[in-house]
Amino acid sequence: MSSSDPNVTPSAPQSGRSAFRRVLLKLSGEALMGDREYGIDPATVAQIAEEIIGVQAMGVEVGIVIGAGNIYRGMAAAAEGMDRATGDYAGMLATVLNALAVQDALERRGAQTRVLSALTVAEVAEPYIRRRAIRHLEKGRVVIFAAGTGNPFFTTDTAASLRALEIGAEAILMAKHGVEGVYDGDPRTDPSALFLPTLTHLQAIERGLKVMDTTALSLCMDNDLPIYVFRLAPGNFLRVASGERVGTIISTNPDTGAIR
């Protein structure tokens, strides 16, 4: 994809080549919905799983953090007026459901996976331990981090930044539902919104761009961790992992933040 035109279809990645050793893939809960209003669309999850396996086959170690908007929005009425901390814990549990769905789709296709949860759900997931997570990655397992940070008042964006830094990921790959990357407005409501091929973490914070929350962006900025934001579409995860310019790159220095 051209860095200046998000509508140009990128060429296919070169087979077998990867630009990263280890990445953290951030998926929103909405990414699992497909065309549904809420919940999980099996066909969409299957397509995501196929792509993750393809990236892993290139030699990339993959960790995943998934949001919970697809489930939590379905219970929005029940959550209205709920205490913030209680609502956040409910959201964390919803991410466990999404993690199990993605785990099942991956394992049906032959991948080895582990779900590591920041909340104790011993019957379905291992507790999150940093060294254990790194060991699983080194053994070629896809590691899915569930339950956010395990604390209320923190988003799954912050969890993605934190886990990426803890496991030594080279980048966060953020797959967005319905948009090509980062814009200076909401392209779904503002047709004049301008696509931004590169920007810094600080610019994203100062301009209030809805990429990640401020805490997550600050963590990435302080630790020089680049974020690659791209549309969740067939082939895009593979293209980014193989070194193509797809979507938006957010880095500490936009001149040096290109794919390395």
What does this structure look like?
- This protein has a single domain, classed as Carbamate kinase, CATH 3.40.1160.
- The protein contains nine helices and eleven strands.
- It has a nine-stranded mixed β-sheet, with helices on both faces.
- Helix 1 crosses helix 4 and helix 6 runs parallel beside helix 8.
Sequence-ordered SSE layout with sheet pairings:
Layout: E1 22-27, H1 42-57, E2 61-66, H2 69-72, H3 76-79, H4 84-108, E3 113-117, E4 126-127, H5 130-138, E5 142-146, H6 156-167, E6 171-176, E7 182-183, E8 195-196, E9 198-200, H7 201-206, H8 214-222, E10 227-231, H9 236-241, E11 248-251
Indicate the CATH architecture: 3-Layer(aba) Sandwich
The rough form would be described as globular
Strand % is 15-25%
Distance between the termini: 17 Å
Pick out the low-confidence regions.
1-15, 256-260
**Which CATH C-level class is it?**
Alpha Beta
- The count of β-strands is 11
Mean pLDDT: 88
Could you state the oligomeric state of the chains shown? Answer: single chain
CATH topology name = Carbamate kinase
Order of helices and strands: EHEHHHEEHEHEEEEHHEHE
Class computed from helices, strands and strand pairing: alpha/beta
Widest sheet: strand order? 4-3-5-2-1-6-10-11-9
Helix content: 25-40%
Sheet with the most strands, sense and barrel status: 9 strands, mixed
- What's the CATH superfamily, by name? Acetylglutamate kinase-like
> How large is the count of helical segments?
9
